[in-house]
Amino acid sequence: MENYSEETQNPHHTNIELIYDYTEYRLQLVNNSINNLNTKLGSIIAFSGIAVGFSINLPNEAFLVNDSTKQYFCYSCLILKIFICVCLIIAIFASTSGFLPKAGGGMTPPDLLMKENYYDSDENIRLIITKTSIEALAELESLRDNKAKFVSSAILALGGAAFFAATDVILASILSII
């Protein structure tokens, strides 16, 4: 036991290499997550654009006919079609906003390390890189979380558009039978 306590108190032993590797791994995970969110944002924009084209063919109006064969307009379908288009606009806007460039993930430039720390130990260089990588990781995580909010908003708006489209079709079908 005494030998173990002496090793743990040794100031020359650090875990900087392990921390450095773990920090690099976390940076890679966050970057992959950001790339996946960008893919989702692009897909939502494309799908919403296509859905706008399909919404043109949705019913605008349906007729209610009374016993004396007078026709009355029902504007519920038109209002639903407007809601669909508004939801699609929100989805496109949220997705596009998620693509706006934002600075994040500033790291120590390699040329600065070469100039100022060329003769330092590997452990010291890893420590410097790890400290700046941890700051960059916090910035990238914030960027990822912000993009995730835009994806969530766009998906909710797209879901709203789908709900209103289904309601519009159902309502128009029911009204055409009456």
Give your account of this protein's structure:
The protein is mainly α and about 180 residues long. It has one domain. The chain has five helices and two strands; from the N terminus they run ααββααα. Helix 2 runs antiparallel to helix 3, helix 2 packs parallel to helix 5 and helix 3 packs antiparallel against helix 5.
Provide a concise account of the structure shown.
With 178 residues, this protein is mostly helical. The protein has helices at residues 2-8, 16-55, 76-98, 110-117, 122-177; strands at 62-65, 71-74. Helices cover 75% and strands 4% of the residues.
List the helices and strands and how they pair.
Layout: H1 2-8, H2 16-55, E1 62-65, E2 71-74, H3 76-98, H4 110-117, H5 122-177
Antiparallel strand pairs: 1-2
